[in-house]
Amino acid sequence: MQVGIAHRVDRRQSNERKAAEASPTTDAQGLVEFACECTKEDCERSVRVPLYVYRQLVEAGNQYLLQAGHHAFASYRTIVALGLMRIEERA
Ligand SMILES: [Zn+2]
């Protein structure tokens, strides 16, 4: 579990760096690709969301961006579910 948390923290830091860029790469729909912030250390999934959505969840402090079926906490609430994208917060 400790390793998993370190993984989640690491993913969040690199996602935050990406979100802080002046003009991160967006796809045709205006979505930015962020790494899944789950605690599975071998997870290499990515999730695409609008930049403002990612910035809002970072601001919330206890929310994480995840691929469907992946989780950031042992105990969580799903805030947003859209396609394969999930936003969870600690329950
Ligand atoms: Zn994951």
Q: What would the keywords be for this entry?
A:
single chain; 91 residues; alpha+beta; three-stranded antiparallel sheet; two-stranded antiparallel ribbon; 2 helices; 5 strands; globular; binds zinc ion
Summarize the entry for a quick read:
With 91 residues, the chain is of the alpha+beta class. It is built from two helices and five strands. The strands form two sheets. The protein has a three-stranded antiparallel β-sheet with strand order 3-5-4, covered by helices on one side. Strands 1-2 form a two-stranded antiparallel ribbon.
Q: β content, as a range?
A: 25-35%
Most strands sheet: 3 strands, antiparallel
User: Judging from the principal axes of the Cα atoms, what is the shape?
Assistant: globular
Order of helices and strands: HEEHEEE
Query: What small-molecule ligands were found?
Result: zinc ion
**Total strands:** 5
Q: Residue ranges: pLDDT <50 for 5 or more in a row? A: none
Q: Roughly how much helix do the residues carry, as a percent range?
A: 25-40%
Q: In whole angstroms, how far apart are the ends?
A: 17 Å
Strand order of the largest sheet: 3-5-4
